[in-house]
C-alpha cells in the first residue's frame, strides 16, 4: 500500500510541478507566481511520503518537459525546481533521539529531535549559490564571458524597448542594463532561496494540517542558526570583494546567505512580538513594507539576524518559550 501511495504521489506531484514550471512561457505576473510555486507539490510529496517520492516526482516532471521541449528543458526543471525539494526533504526527515532541550530551536516530538529548520535554510542558501555557480560555468566559464553572454541575452530581450528610447538617453539605458547584468546572478540566487523557503514553509503547514506530516515543525519564531554560519557569511562576502570570476562566485553565495540572515531577523521580530496585542497588524504591515520596499528594509533585517547570532537577543529580551510539538 505504501509503495502504491508513493507512486501516486510521485506521479501527481511530478505532473503538477511540471505544469507550474511550464507556466513561465506565458510571461504574465500570474505565470511568474505559478512558476515559483512549482516546487510545492514535490515538497508535499517529500514531507508526507519521504524524499524518494520527491525524487521520483522530479524525474517524472523532468522527463515530461524533456519529452515536450527537449533535454535542456528537462534538465533546467530538475535543477531549478526538483533538486531543492529532494535534498531538503531528505534532510528534514533526519532525526536523532532527544537529548535534552532544543539547542537550535528544532522541533522535538516522539522522543526525537528533528533536523533544525535553521540548518535547512542555510543548506538552501548553499544550494542557491551552487546552482548559480553551475549556471556561470555553463554560460561562462569565466566572469567576463558570462557577463557578455548575459548582456547579449538582455539586449536581445530589451531591443523593442530600446528602440523607443530617445538617442540622448540610450547611454543611460545601457548603464541601467549593465547594472541589471551585474546584479542578476546574486538576485537570482536570493530569489531561488526565497522561493524554496516559502514552498517548504507552505508544504510543512499543508502536511501538518492534513495529518500527513512525517515530522513535527517548530514555530518560525524559534528559527536559529549555528555560530559557524557567521563564518560562512564572512567568507562568502570576502570572496565577493575579489575581482573577476572568484568575486562573481562569492557574490552568488553571499546574496542567499545574506537573505537567510534577513529571514532570521524576521524570526526575531516574530518572537519579540509574541503576546503583543497588535502582533498581527504589525507583522502584516512589516511584510507589506518588505514587499514594496525590500531594498530599504533588508539591511536592518540582516543586521538584526547578525545581532541575534552574536548577542542572542531573544534570550536577553524575551526568553524563548518551549518549542511546541506539532504532529
Order of helices and strands: HHHHHEEEHHHHHHHHH
The number of distinct helices, counting runs of at least 4 residues, comes to 14
Question: What would you call the shape?
Answer: globular
- Largest sheet, order of strands side by side? 1-3-2
Number of strands: 3
Instruction: Report the mean per-residue pLDDT as an integer.
Output: 91
Strand content: under 5%
Radius of gyration: 21 Å
Structure summarized in a few sentences:
The protein has 327 residues and is an all-alpha fold. 74% of the residues lie in helices and 2% in strands.
Molecular structure report:
The structure is a single chain. With 327 residues, this protein is mainly α. It contains 14 helices and three strands. The chain has helices at residues 2-22, 29-36, 39-49, 51-69, 71-92, 117-139, 143-157, 159-163, 170-209, 228-240, 244-272, 279-292, 294-311, 313-317; strands spanning 95-97, 108-109, 112-114. 37% of the residues are buried. 74% of the residues lie in helices and 2% in strands. Strands 1-3-2 form a three-stranded antiparallel sheet, with no helix packed on it. The model has no long low-confidence stretch (mean pLDDT 91).
Amino acid at each position: 500500500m505504501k509503495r502504491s501511495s508513493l507512486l501516486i504521489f510521485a506521479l501527481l506531484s511530478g505532473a503538477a510541478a511540471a505544469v507550474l514550471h511550464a507556466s513561465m512561457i506565458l510571461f504574465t505576473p500570474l505565470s511568474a507566481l505559478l512558476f515559483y510555486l512549482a516546487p510545492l507539490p514535490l515538497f508535499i510529496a517529500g514531507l508526507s511520503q519521504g524524499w524518494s517520492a520527491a525524487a521520483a516526482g522530479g524525474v517524472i516532471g523532468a522527463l515530461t518537459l524533456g519529452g515536450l521541449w527537449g533535454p535542456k528543458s528537462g534538465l533546467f526543471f530538475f535543477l531549478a525546481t526538483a533538486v531543492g525539494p529532494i535534498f531538503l526533504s531528505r534532510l528534514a526527515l533526519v532525526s536523532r533521539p532527544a537529548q535534552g532541550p532544543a539547542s537550535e530551536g528544532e522541533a522535538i516530538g516522539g522522543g526525537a529531535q528533528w533536523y533544525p529548520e535553521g540548518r535547512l535554510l542555510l543548506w538552501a542558501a548553499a544550494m542557491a549559490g551552487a546552482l548559480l555557480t553551475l549556471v556561470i560555468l555553463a554560460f561562462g566559464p569565466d566572469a567576463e564571458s558570462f557577463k557578455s553572454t548575459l548582456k547579449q541575452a538582455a539586449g536581445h530581450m530589451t531591443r523593442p524597448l530600446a528602440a523607443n528610447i530617445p538617442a540622448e538617453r540610450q547611454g543611460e539605458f545601457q548603464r541601467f542594463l549593465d547594472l541589471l547584468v551585474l546584479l542578476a546572478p546574486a538576485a537570482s540566487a536570493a530569489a531561488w532561496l526565497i522561493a524554496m523557503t516559502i514552498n517548504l514553509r507552505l508544504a510543512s503547514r499543508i502536511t501538518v494540517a492534513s495529518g500527513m506530516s512525517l515530522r513535527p515543525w517548530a514555530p518560525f519564531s524559534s528559527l536559529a542558526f549555528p555560530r559557524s554560519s557567521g563564518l560562512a557569511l564572512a567568507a562568502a562576502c570576502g570572496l565577493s570583494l575579489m575581482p573577476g570570476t572568484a568575486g562573481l562566485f562569492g557574490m552568488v553565495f553571499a546574496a542567499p546567505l545574506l537573505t537567510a540572515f534577513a529571514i532570521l531577523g524576521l524570526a526575531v521580530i516574530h518572537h519579540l512580538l509574541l503576546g503583543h496585542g497588535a502582533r498581527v497588524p504589525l507583522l502584516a504591515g512589516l511584510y507589506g513594507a518588505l514587499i514594496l520596499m525590500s531594498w530599504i528594509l533588508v539591511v536592518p533585517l540582516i543586521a538584526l539576524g547578525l545581532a541575534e547570532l552574536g548577542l542572542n537577543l531573544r534570550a536577553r529580551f524575551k526568553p524563548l518559550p518551549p518549542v511546541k510539538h506539532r504532529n
